[in-house]
Design a protein that fits this description.
Helix content is 3%, strand content 42%. By secondary structure, the chain is an all-beta fold.
């Protein structure tokens, strides 16, 4: 028997709808359905953490940005969870233990999606990049605290285990990162991040501080100087400050340059009666020492035979104890050889002492027994002076824009003008086209740290003093090949050097 179905349009439509519902597992009711709810999204990283560089005691911040619903964060150090680090940024106090640690962040969405950022490295920095010019050798320190030496090595002052010269910068083996270096006439010093001081080179006057007069050609610790935070040196005498702000001196004392009230050499560090608590800076010359107070007072001791302390001439030219030179007029001071320079609180440069080559830049060749204004013609009018920097017979002026002007002796091209000269300059002249972060002048050579943390040098180059692999004098700034003072692993430009805050290791080298 055949069942005949109606063929009306209404019935056909109903049967078709029933078939559709059955196919979909439905059982009746309306043929329409509500729109599906959107699924939770994310996470998707839009900004990942970037590498950071910072000095010990600073803070760095790692950040992440992500898209998604209900995001939560967890920061990781070398793949391990950091307790409490659960926001989209992580502020980290910089400590030595974090050097080259890898930081990442795990981002989770409320629906359970999860992703982890690439790792970002932290470079811990130890020192402001600097070159310290000795009499005929130089030391460089990188932001990572690595030390290089080059030039004359006859007294073991390069610290490389022999008495040979080096024509190019060569790494000095030290048992940890350094935060400061200082180069004297024939000896060298390094302050390590752990507060120890190491010394090497000539020791005839006790300048190595080890209780002997034995020369050393490798770095050795200076006994009794644990906890040091600052150091500097002159030709053959030294000064260090400990964390308790006690000041210690040792080495050559023929003219009372140690400020201890006598002229006896000190073979070991000896505590000074002066506390460093109220001091902003210290600088040691050939036979004299200058201290600048936070109040702007200037003090000095040692030889004044050429007026290098700034005292008037008298038959008694030696000051065996620190004596006030100026009241509230000094911002910074530099001692070298037989003269001194000063940055006044008025922002102008001043000089005193020997001036036979025009190194005081006052338009004359007259030796001065008292600070006189130096010329500033080589710098842009209205620019802010950063420091007047003396060598043995030549002086540079550096402003805050990085411009340089030079005056004085130029026999070997140490003024950087592009050609040597048998005549001296008595007024500063500009070095066009040169931008400098910091300068250091030796006996007849000059070294500049550039903003990109490369180094240029010029002047006398016997025994490789300029570090360019030759013995050819350079009368114009010439790049020292292969010497880069920045953090290598991340390639990040380090933070700008801070203003000096008293005698401490991370004060900019140009003020030390």
């Amino acid at each position: 028997m055949t069942l005949a179905l109606p063929t009306s349009p209404r019935l056909v439509l109903a049967i078709s709808g029933l078939a559709f519902l059955l196919a979909c597992g439905g059982g009746g009711g309306s043929t329409s359905s509500s729109a599906p709810k959107p699924l939770p999204t994310g996470p998707r990283l839009t900004t990942t953490p970037s590498a950071q560089a910072g000095y010990r005691g600073d803070q760095v911040t790692f950040r992440v940005a992500a898209e998604g619903t209900g995001l939560s964060y967890q920061w990781l150090r070398n793949g391990s969870v950091i307790a409490g680090a659960t926001t989209d940024s992580f502020v980290l106090p910089v400590q030595a233990a974090d050097d080259q640690a890898r930081y990442s962040v795990r981002v989770t969405a409320s629906a359970g999606g999860i992703t982890t950022s690439p790792e970002a490295v932290l470079d811990v920095l130890y020192a402001d990049p600097a070159v310290s010019a000795g009499h005929d050798h130089a030391l460089a320190i990188t932001t990572k605290g690595k030390v290089y030496a080059w030039g004359v090595g006859a007294n073991g002052q390069l610290g490389l285990g022999d008495y040979q010269a080096r024509m190019v910068p060569t790494a000095v083996a030290l048992p940890g990162p350094a935060v400061q270096v200082a180069a004297g006439w024939g000896h060298s010093l390094a302050l390590l991040a752990d507060g120890r001081v190491f010394a090497w080179g000539t020791n005839v006057s006790g300048q190595l501080g080890d209780g002997t007069t034995t020369m050393r050609n490798v770095p050795a610790p200076v006994p009794g100087l644990s906890g040091a935070v600052y150091l500097t040196c002159g030709y053959n005498h030294n000064l260090a400050v400990k964390s308790d702000q006690s000041m210690w001196v040792w080495g050559y004392n023929s003219h009372g340059q140690l400020g201890l009230g006598d002229k006896a050499n000190r073979l070991v560090p000896t505590q000074s009666p002066i506390s460093a608590q109220a001091l902003a800076g210290a600088s040691l010359g050939e036979l004299h020492t200058l201290l600048v107070g936070l109040s702007g007072d200037l003090f000095g001791c040692g030889d004044n035979g050429y007026g290098q302390l700034g005292f008037p001439y008298s038959p008694t030219t030696e000051y065996l104890a620190f004596t006030q030179i100026l009241a509230r007029g000094a911002k910074a001071a530099r001692a070298f050889s037989l003269y001194s320079t000063m940055l006044g609180t008025d922002g102008l440069p001043y000089g005193t002492g020997e001036n036979v080559y025009g190194q005081l830049g006052d338009g004359s060749f007259t030796t001065r027994y008292g600070f006189v204004p130096m010329g500033t013609a080589g710098l842009n009018t209205g620019s802010t002076l950063d420091a007047p920097i003396p060598g043995q017979y030549h002086t540079h002026l550096l402003n805050t824009a990085g411009d340089v002007a030079s005056t004085g002796y130029n026999w070997y091209g140490q003024l950087g003008f592009g050609a040597p000269s048998t005549t001296s300059t008595t007024s500063p002249q500009a070095l066009p086209g040169l931008k400098v972060l910091a300068l250091s002048a030796g006996s007849m050579s000059t070294y500049a740290v550039l903003p990109d943390l490369s180094v240029k040098a010029w002047g006398y180059n016997n025994n490789g003093r300029l570090g360019d692999g030759t013995a050819t004098d350079r009368p114009a700034p010439t790049t020292v090949p292969g010497l880069f003072l920045g953090p290598v692993p991340t390639g990040i430009t380090p933070p700008a050097p801070t203003a000096p805050r008293g005698l401490q290791a991370k004060a900019p080298a140009r003020f030390s």
